[in-house]
Every structure is written in structure tokens, then in C-alpha cells.
């Protein structure tokens, strides 16, 4: 979708991470609700509303085993006009994003946000949106921790699209963005089965793919192609 928005809508992107201090298990669900409410208020701020042309927002939760607490946070990929980075009347600095986030959360303990321009080829920012909302190394620490993650994430909209991203997602689902896909050139040969144990993956089985399996998994299309 980024390639489509960059080429067809002539947009650039910023990657915003919104965070707050960790919370104990019994406060996690309410904290996520506060995040959602605060984010809605942030997007309604006039100085933000006029520069955001669309966004993809992802909820992620990490677990701190040493302190036994949880860290919900938002990764937000925002589409902006190309002039955003040079227009001093529109550009929002990192310090201003922090101030705005503290205001809408009403949490003076927040000390940081992260915001940066997405440069050509920085696929790691897209990965932050696409990856799972919780790492297995976190939620498989114990049954108790797993249940906390399960209750907190159950029924939640983990990825939210708005504006141009929402329009592009509709086009993508309708097969209208096929031109922005390319063939996966990886040659897959083996099928490997893993099991999770002792806080790491353990290889259980490794075998060669059959001819039919290789035909099925090789040469598939991936979601996007880079636009130079």
C-alpha cells in the first residue's frame, strides 16, 4: 500500500511510536482503552488533523519479566504531503508530538515518543506494523502471562486503517493493486517443523519439499514492490 500511496497519491510517510509507562496485569485492559481514547483525541487536534492524510495504527504489547509488568504502545504509519517536511507551519517536531500525547493521555509521566521520516527502502517501519501484536518469547513465559495477553487482546482491533490507508486497503482487497506486487524470488526447498520449548524454538523435523509442494510455495507474489 505504501508504494501505491507514494506513486499514485504522491505522499511521504512518518513513523510514530506512542508509549507510556508500563502497567501491571490488572491495569492492562483499561490502559489499552485509555490509549484508544487518547489516540482519537490526538487525531482530532487541529494541527494533527490537517497534516494526516491517512494512517495505519498497530497495537503492540511487550512484557517485562523482571518487573512483571506490561507495555502497550502504538506504532503508527502516517501518510503526509511531501511539503510536510519543509512547511514550518505544518511540521510537528518530536517535542511537540510528545507534548500533544501527554495532553491527550493526561499522563505527565510520559517522557518519550519516537517520530521519524520513513526513507526509501526502510522496510523495517512497515515490519513494525505487520508483525504480531505480542512476541512469543513474551506471552509464552508462563500460563499466567499468556492469559493476561489473551484477555487484553481478545476482541481488540489490533490494526486500524484510516483515510488514504483505508481506501488503499479496500483497493488491495479488491485486487486493484496487483501492479504493486512482485514475485518472491526465494527458492523454498525444505519443510521445517519447530516446537516452542525452554523459551526458544526447537527443530523437530526437516525434510525436502515434494515437487507438488515446491510448485505451490515457490513463485508466489509478495504484497508490494519498491518504487524508486
Counting structural domains, the number is 2
Shape: flat
Total strands: the figure is 9
> What is the CATH topology assignment of the largest domain?
Alpha-Beta Plaits
CATH superfamily assignment of the largest domain?
A: TT1725-like
- Tell me about the biggest sheet? 5 strands, antiparallel
Number of helices: 9
Q: Helix amount, in percent?
A: 25-40%
Structural class, by secondary structure, is: alpha+beta
Series of secondary-structure elements, N-terminal to C-terminal: HEHHEEHEHHHEHEEEHE
Radius of gyration: 20 Å
Q: How do the strands of the widest beta sheet line up side by side?
A: 4-1-3-2-5
Describe it for me?
There is one protein chain. By secondary structure, this protein is of the alpha+beta class. It folds into 2 domains: 2-178, TT1725-like (Alpha-Beta Plaits, 2-Layer Sandwich); 182-222, no CATH class. The protein is 35% helix and 27% strand. It is built from 9 helices and 9 strands. It has helices spanning 2-8, 28-44, 46-49, 94-105, 123-130, 136-139, 143-153, 164-173, 211-217; strands spanning 11-18, 54-64, 69-81, 114-117, 159-163, 182-183, 190-197, 200-208, 221-222. The strands form 3 sheets. Strands 4-1-3-2-5 form a 5-stranded antiparallel beta sheet, sandwiched between helices. It has a two-stranded antiparallel sheet with strand order 6-9. It has a two-stranded antiparallel ribbon with strand order 7-8. Strand 7 (190-197) and strand 8 (200-208) form a beta hairpin. Helix 2 (28-44) packs across helix 4 (94-105). It is flat. This is Replication protein. Pfam families: Rep_1. InterPro entries: Rep. One of its GO terms (molecular function) is DNA binding.
